[in-house]
Amino acid sequence: MSPFFEPVITSSDKIFTALRADIVAGHVKAGVKLSEAELSTKYGVSRAVIREAINRLANTSLVERKPNIGARVVTLSHEGLVQLYQVREALEGMAARLAATNMSDAEIQDLHALMRSHSQEVKGGETYYQEAGDVDFHYRVVLGSHNQPLISMLTNNIYHLVRMYRVQLGMAGPRVTTAFAEHQQIVQAITNRDGELAEILMRRHILYSKNNIEAKLNRSAATNTEEIK
Amino acid sequence: MSPFFEPVITSSDKIFTALRADIVAGHVKAGVKLSEAELSTKYGVSRAVIREAINRLANTSLVERKPNIGARVVTLSHEGLVQLYQVREALEGMAARLAATNMSDAEIQDLHALMRSHSQEVKGGETYYQEAGDVDFHYRVVLGSHNQPLISMLTNNIYHLVRMYRVQLGMAGPRVTTAFAEHQQIVQAITNRDGELAEILMRRHILYSKNNIEAKLNRSAATNTEEIK
DNA sequence: ATGGCCTATATTGTCGACAATATTTAAAGG
DNA sequence: CCTTTAAATATTGTCGACAATATAGGCCAT
Prior knowledge:
The structure is a homodimer.
Chain A: H1 11-25, E1 33-34, H2 36-43, H3 47-59, E2 63-66, E3 70-73, H4 78-102, H5 105-124, H6 128-144, H7 148-168, H8 175-191, H9 195-228
Antiparallel strand pairs in A: 1-3, 2-3
The structure holds a DNA duplex.
């Protein structure tokens, strides 16, 4: 009867989402062991659902699991960031190119609407943009590729890791407005059905983003080593 | 004591591998439902390990799982093939480029040794080549990229799907020798540390492979529709 | 005191049973 | 005869307990 799709939420889904949010936010710190018994009592569910959630986290590369030993939260590293963004640049660049040819006119209209809404937020100086808006933009473009394996890899594996770096490094700097401008350029290229340009712009946009994060990562690494001394 | 790394094999690992082999080989046909109870009795293990194996198959895109309903073996389609190879071309092309700069001299020597061994097999006309040798070659190059997210996505998600198409369509035609020649060219480019060329050659190699499979897929689709009539 | 071994403890892997949800079957009404 | 509804069945989701493996701590020998 209901015209809306009602997603079935299982217990594991909730635990998985909750744990993922904690890990991405750095609430559960890198290298920490995820004890099944402990989490079981904490969340008030059986170990079975905890296990399933942890397995899903492992498939998202947010935790590393070893048989008979357990699962630990992944540790962010400079090398990891570089490798991650190398792949992300290739995949999202491709997504932008495909989106330029595969998105329907309606989808493109929706994208424009999203940009207008983001525009308001940027003017208002809200931090919301970097948190969800940016993800939302990229998410839309990825979906616009209409390529299922590509969508799956980006949304299930890469995005949450990317978010983890950004959130934990507290990315909310002056790049907000310039990133918005870059987004607009990409939307324009897609609107013009210029896949080649869309890919170039997207790759460059992601490269800038990487450089931005890299700088911050180096700074925080420097202070950390000082603290150790 | 043993100098070799001994991988820990859990029950789920065995079931996962067994099921995957059956699915890839087409022993379990597309669209068939994977009943937990049934598989539990068939393999003589508890439903828990079956569930875990099925979850892992779902993460490999070999089965589709819906909450409270169950898991079904994915159905191969022309569109699926095109999308899969689109992504594969980008990722493995990138892997070849990275391998050209990141592989150690020792790794490259090993790669040459592999090619010599394949050369023998091709001359002997063995079918082994297409089954494992080809995979082995691509596998080595992917590992040579030294990019962990890339390695993970290709080996865990894409390869088995690709193998599924090839195995089920009975790919063992005259392309064997020409594919071998293409492999050698790629190895040469990597040896010369020419990443750009390695990427171009790899992408083209995969494109040829796709065209080959596509042709066969169309033929079998044609006969299938006739059978229906 | 230190290093290696062995027991004790804790943690993960596996199992069978129960609960919640979907599917099938049958009955009733039109 | 077909559609709709409701009970019956089957399947997946969740749970707590036991088995197998890893970790920690103490004991012994040197």
